[in-house]
Amino acid sequence: MKLNSCLPTCVVVGLFTVLSGCATSPPPSRAQNNICDIIQHEPAWYFAAKASEDKWGTSVAIQKAFVQRESSFVHNARPPRPYLLGFIPMPRKSSAYGYAQAQDAAWSDYKQATGKRMAQRTSMADALDFIGWYNHMSRQRNGVPLNDSYNLYLNYHEGHTGFRNRTYEQKAWLMSVARQVESQSRRYEQQLPSCKIPSRLCVWPFC
Prior knowledge:
Helix content is 52%, strand content 4%. It contains 9 helices and 4 strands, in the order αβααααββααααβ. Strand 2 (83-84) and strand 3 form a beta hairpin. This is Transglycosylase SLT domain-containing protein. It holds the Pfam family SLT_4. It comes from Nitrincola tibetensis.
């Protein structure tokens, strides 16, 4: 197939796992409630989410709802840094970082469990794989179905031991956030069938 006939019909992204690992500007806030707009903004993210779904079982919609809530699709997101007296920087309250806001300990566990020693929290492909892995562990350890985005998110936020100890019951704000994630995942799920998904992934120059 000639290159000029390939470009209009397939997404020339090279290896999508490489591109989805590169820093990409986040979709505009108004577009983040529509998964079709997110896919159009960065098609490689969809293929990375689908790969994670096929591997771990968490749907594309739930993965994307987690990322939207955790980082608003900002690759290097961190918790805000507090300042003493308004100008002296203090340590952040959490080591959460990247698209999935994975903390240091959980990320280390993920890399050890999966053998992905080079995984980066600023890579969307790695972040989505982490979310899929963590939810897989939530099902194994706490029996949470992979379509239960509400309880999956509570596990994700509180940790598996915290969820078993029901620490979230003392955090009304967190349960509210988990409901928001649930609503977002359902919205994405309803939107997905109408999205224009690239029909094939074309690796230039072999189109």
